[in-house]
Amino acid sequence: MTVTSHGPAFSLQEIPFSHHGSWFDISPVVAQHTQAPDLHLVSHQNGMHPVLRLVPLHPGTGDRARTGWDAAPAVLTWRGDGGRIDLTYESADTVRLRGQDLDLMVVPAAADLTSFSGTYFHRDPVDGSYQFTSYETGRRYRITPLAGAVAESVGLEGLGGASRRLTLSGPDGWEAAIEEIDSARAPYAARDGFPALVHRGDRSFRDFADAVAALPAERAPAAELAAYVLWSATVRPAGFLRRPAVLMSKHWMDKVWSWDHCFNALALAPGLPDLAWDQFHLPFDHQDETGALPDSVTHSEVLYNFVKPPVHGWTLRRLRDRLPRQPGPDRLRETYRRLKHWTDFWLVARTAPDQALPHYQHGNDSGWDNATTFDAHRVLVTADLAGFLVLQLAELAELGKELGLTDEAERYLRTAESVQTALFEQLWSGSRFRARSPHTGEASTSRSLLDLMPIVLGERLPREVSDRLADRIASHLTPYGLATEHPDSPHYESDGYWRGPIWAPSTVLIEDGLRRAGHTGLADEVSRRFRGLCERSGFAENFDALTGEGLRDRAYTWTASSYLLLADDHHRRLTSAGRAVL
């Protein structure tokens, strides 16, 4: 009966069990910061919705069995009271279960059924399967008993608060399938045995991991787990997501935000270039008539109430450096058109008349939602925004030259130079960058790491400016990484979102800028400490800067991607240095 999955073991309290392409997972995490005592089938169509509660039972008494959970990439196991239940994915929308000396009760996560919410339970006269129909997800969950299974149902066709459940059992072991379907499909038929499904799942994960995390274990001991976080959080095209998409998480952060996707694209680029290219373009598929990108995209909604910073020029330059082959002319022309439209949004819709620099309308636009930079004013001209825009304009100029658009390329290069000149004339005080209100011109400063983000300009910075920025950045460096608010600041909060914790994107952007500005020693230290933090505390959304504890969502893909990106760069530098010695 025993089957083994090869790959990293992980805690289901932190990382959900799922499969590449699937829109659902198996997890005790049923809402933001909420864990249930039982594992649930949790769907991410129409949002995050726990649909079915999965409860192991003692076969002799029908009482709840005392079990623990083991999880590896291809198999999840309940184990206890002398029995076990194994679960594996057969495909992106189907799981298979196998039980021995343990029964399984399947119960709707929502106890009540109303006209607008809850889960309806019935038996299909066509194939004899049992179906739970969810209002929240708009999908059906079909359970088909297989070899040795005895199915006992309660509450078929019941309404309101009627008890509804299905119990699977079998004295000599049992099997079953659960499918997430839209409306109807042919009756389920098992085509492969359980061990073959596990082997196939292992192969799928191994192929992915070999492509994105082929690093020596001693140099990147968490690379395989990072690969699992990415592999399992990838969903097939559906709803508003028109391409395969790496969600930020298959917990409650189950969206693609319009800068998070950049870091996933960079990590995937060397080994999975087509998937990486899709990640870069996902938000651009919903670019509006002004050129704005949406704040976020997910299965059933596209939000435009905020935007995200224009990091896409920086990303495209790094992406093209990491791709094993360059995109063809058609792809480059499409990318140029989209990036041009996005850049023009900042130059027109977000630059006030008679002003040279664009502004954010809220901290959310910057990606640093509640950073102390925005305490004095929410609508603000900031140095990080100008720095990103300079890099985007410069990348547009380079791309325009390649495409033979000489006049446009020269215009974007001149604009990049004028924005950079205005950045120093208007926001540089001689010792630090300040932000300004576009309404009053009032200047403000903070102790946020965001104010130091112009280091991304790297080699474009005057040496005295990059030295000042590097010194200030070094003062944010704790034993675990870069605190987003200086630890000595009166506004520092250990779990304050962007008011203290360490974040992956700020780490990657600053590490890259420091390195290009010639501060390689500090860049090495930033990289080393962040990689060590992930190896110690996993791939959380962010981390306590003083203790290294993982905070918020614990299975965040841009953190996993940032780890892989930094580890890969570190490995390449060591390999290159070794070749130089030889």
UniProtKB/TrEMBL annotation:
Q: Which GO terms describe its biological process?
A: oligosaccharide metabolic process; protein N-linked glycosylation
Keyword check for Hydrolase: yes
Q: Which domain of life is it from?
A: Bacteria
MF (Gene Ontology): Glc3Man9GlcNAc2 oligosaccharide glucosidase activity
> Which Gene3D superfamilies does the annotation name?
1.50.10.10
Pfam families in the cross-refs: MGH1-like_GH (PF22422)
Write down the InterPro entries for this protein, in alphabetical order: 6-hairpin_glycosidase_sf, 6hp_glycosidase-like_sf, Glycoside_hydrolase_63, MGH1-like_GH
Q: Which UniProt keywords apply?
A: Glycosidase, Hydrolase
What family does the database annotate? Belongs to the glycosyl hydrolase 63 family.
Give the protein name, as stated in the record.
Trehalase
Q: Which organism is it from?
A: Actinacidiphila paucisporea
